[in-house]
Amino acid sequence: MERAVSAPLAASLPASHSAGVAKQIDWEALLVEGHEPLKVAQRIFRWLPHDPRCKLCLNPFGGVGGKMVGLLGHKPSRKNPNVCQFCFDRLPTGGIEIDIGVVFADVRASTALGESSDATTFAERLNEFYRTATKVLIHNEGIVDKLIGDEVMGLFIQGIAGPDYRRKAALAALELASEIAELPLGVAANAGIAFVGNVGSGSVLDFTALGDAVNVGARLQAHASPGEVVLAAPLYPLIEREYPGGRPDRLAIRGRDQPVDVVVVTSPA
């Protein structure tokens, strides 16, 4: 039997997030056209404390908010703990190829940083990096795809971030670099076609993006010096008015035959 929750919370939850029977949606509706019940859920859940959260609806898994919505069964999926059970039950199998924006941020010299500080202090600094990165990505309507070691990966998808998802990816990269000025950070943003959907097999699946656009984004981040943001050249005109003076460059990317044109922007103070 479903346990009772407070009337205000129950009333605020979208119907698609409180129904007892899961109804699948198709990838086109979710990732390209935009799924309105999911957008409503994001607008509600983003205000409930606190991280970690469902990648898609922003349902909190931790804190008081996590306990409240947990009473409705909004807990991490067993197959994909980064997505709540309600969202996961509605995701179709596979995925689709679509144009996306992707942001990578990496703490430079983290090994030396760990060596020069005790384990607790090192963990606290990385956790602060994760918190800030999560806040920036969600604020710009991105998806926090991965928090791995000293790196963060964010996705910007039309159906979730809106038609200006490429611009939002570039803005998020620049905002992230300026928000975490106390750590030596390399940040990059790219855009292009990727496979987006459920990846994995058996009992372990993950909602993520794969493909050349993602690989190039990760490589561009490796070229970013602390205090710099490397943007794929097509992204720069989208934010040039706010961030003039970018430096054009052409980078040789390991594993690729053709170089990649970029614009390097100095992180705003």
List the SSEs and their pairings.
Elements: H1 7-12, H2 27-34, H3 36-45, H4 63-70, H5 85-90, E1 95-107, H6 110-115, H7 119-139, E2 143-148, E3 151-157, H8 158-161, H9 165-179, E4 185-201, E5 204-210, H10 212-222, E6 228-232, E7 247-251, E8 260-266
Parallel strand pairs: 4-6
Antiparallel strand pairs: 1-3, 1-4, 2-3, 4-5, 6-8, 7-8
Which residue ranges are poorly predicted, with pLDDT under 50 across at least 5 consecutive positions?
1-22
CATH class membership of the largest domain? Alpha Beta
Averaged pLDDT: 83
The whole-angstrom Rg is 19 Å
Structural class: alpha+beta
Sheet-strand content, in percent, reads: 15-25%
CATH topology of the largest domain: Alpha-Beta Plaits
The shape, in one word, is globular
Helix content: 25-40%
Please write the string of helix (H) and strand (E) elements. Answer: HHHHHEHHEEHHEEHEEE
CATH-level-4 superfamily name of the largest domain: Nucleotide cyclase, GGDEF domain
Précis, in short:
By secondary structure, the chain is α+β, with helices and mostly antiparallel strands. The chain is built from 10 helices and 8 strands.
Describe this structure in words.
The protein is 35% helix and 25% strand. It has 269 residues and is α+β, with helices and mostly antiparallel strands. The protein folds into two domains: 9-90, no CATH class; 95-266, Nucleotide cyclase, GGDEF domain (Alpha-Beta Plaits), CATH 3.30.70. Strands 1, 2, 3, 4, 5, 6, 7 and 8 form an eight-stranded mixed β-sheet that branches. Helix 7 (119-139) packs antiparallel against helix 9 (165-179). The protein starts with 6 loop residues before the first helix and ends with a strand. Mean pLDDT is 83; it is low at 1-22.
